[in-house]
## 1
Amino acid sequence: MKNNIKICKNNKYGIVNKKAGIFIPCEYDDISLGQDDNFYFLVNINDKWGVINRFNQLLIPFEYDMVDYPKNELLSANIKDKYGLLDLNNKIIIPFEYELLINYMPYGIVAKKNNKFGFINTDNKPESEFKFDEIFINTDYPEHFYAAINKKWGVVNAKGLIIKDFIYKNPLVIR
C-alpha cells in the first residue's frame, strides 16, 4: 500500500499509515508494507511468518516458513518445503502436499507436484493435468496463464485448455 511506511526501532519493525489511521508497533523481525486496501500485513518473528490485520490482531500464527498475501481471503503458505492454502482463520483449505502453490484467485490456483505444474481448485481437485514445466499469470489478461511444455511456450486458462499453441520460444512475444 503506497501510504504505508515501514518503521524500525531497536531492530524491530512496524508500520505507520497516518492517512488510514494505522499504527503497528515495532515488535516484528520483519513486516510487509501491505498489498491492497484490506490492510493485511505479513509479519515475521524468529524466522516464522504470520499475518496480522490493520489493528495488529494476529490472524495467522507464526508457524509458517513463508506466507503470501491473501487473495479472496485465501493465502498460500509453506511448511518444511511443502505448500498449502489457508483461509484467514488459519483453517487448512488445501493440505501441505505441493512443491509450490500460487494463489491467483479468483483466476486460478497453480500447483506443482512431481516437478510439473497444473491447476487445482479450492477443493484440492485437479482442474488440469500436471503437465506444464512452468506457469505464470498473464498480467494483461489475468484469466490467462503463460505455460511451457518442453521449452515451448503457449497460453492456457485455469482449466489447462490451450488458448495459444505451444510454439513460442519466449512467453513475452506471445500476443
## 2
Amino acid sequence: MKAQHLIFMLVCFLIYTSALFGQNVPQNTGNASYRSDEDIVDSSMNKLNQQEPDILTFAEEMPEFPGGQEAMMAFLRKNIQYPPMARENGIEGRVVLQFVVNKDGNISDIEIVKKLGWGLEEEAIRIVKIMPGWKPAKQNGKPVMLRMIWPLVITFN
C-alpha cells in the first residue's frame, strides 16, 4: 500500500513539474530581463531553501487537497470567477503560485511566481485563500511544513 501511495505521489510530482517546465521557451527574446519558468522557479526555490530550512519542498507524503485531485478540480470549477477584463480580451493561460501547506493543513505565504496579468493573478490568490485545509505533508510519519509550486491553468469554460 505504501509503495502504491509513493508511486502515486511521484506521478503527481511529475505531472506538476511537467506542466510547469514542459513548454518550449524561446532562447533569445531580445529582452534582457526575460527569464524562463524554470529559471524563476529554480531561483525562488534556492532562495527559500537558504532562508527557511524548516520548510520542505518535497516529503515522503506530499500535501493533498481534501478528497484528492477530482475534488480539487470540482472546487476550482465551482469557485473560479473569470476576471471580466481577461474574458473581454480573450486572455487565458497559466499562473504559477507558490504557497506553504502548514503542519495543520492551512495554507500560508501565497506568492505569484509567474504572472499573466488581466486580473488572473488576483483570482488565483483568491482561490488559494478560500481553499479548505489540505492534508499536510509528512516526513517520517510526522506532519511538516511544505512549500508547493502550483501551476493553475485558467481557461474559458
